[in-house]
């Protein structure tokens, strides 16, 4: 099963104190300690008096893979844009990139992630046609997974691969 953490948004967020943390939701929280990757997430409201926290995030993890994303909304409806992307991008992305039953790669990453971004952009236009003219969100996503075991090669499994993609002026910085 998938372990998940994601941000929660509300119109009342505009009344939260400056620099207050974002509401977080958890699924299968008890399983976090059994998974191979430790994660940390923090998201807080900035100092714009009339604007809620427009940032959002998601973390999805199984034994075989870890997927996470950070979204930075902008414009007067940026919080709606980032929240819709947070709700739809993981499913679009993983549906194109992974065999959910096995956690194995199905398709070429650049093609799959590009298609996922385009599908989510289309959903934004459909749901927020008027608002999307002056608002939007960046999206930075990472998929970390171990390649499936190759039966022709001795060893404990394939290489761990990190794949990332971004749209907008946000990016991924990877350090070892």
UniProtKB/TrEMBL annotation:
<dbReference type="InterPro" id="IPR001932">
    <property type="entry name" value="PPM-type_phosphatase-like_dom"/>
</dbReference>
<protein>
    <recommendedName>
        <fullName>PPM-type phosphatase domain-containing protein</fullName>
    </recommendedName>
</protein>
<feature type="domain" description="PPM-type phosphatase">
    <location>
        <begin position="38"/>
        <end position="176"/>
    </location>
</feature>
<dbReference type="Pfam" id="PF13672">
    <property type="entry name" value="PP2C_2"/>
</dbReference>
<dbReference type="InterPro" id="IPR036457">
    <property type="entry name" value="PPM-type-like_dom_sf"/>
</dbReference>
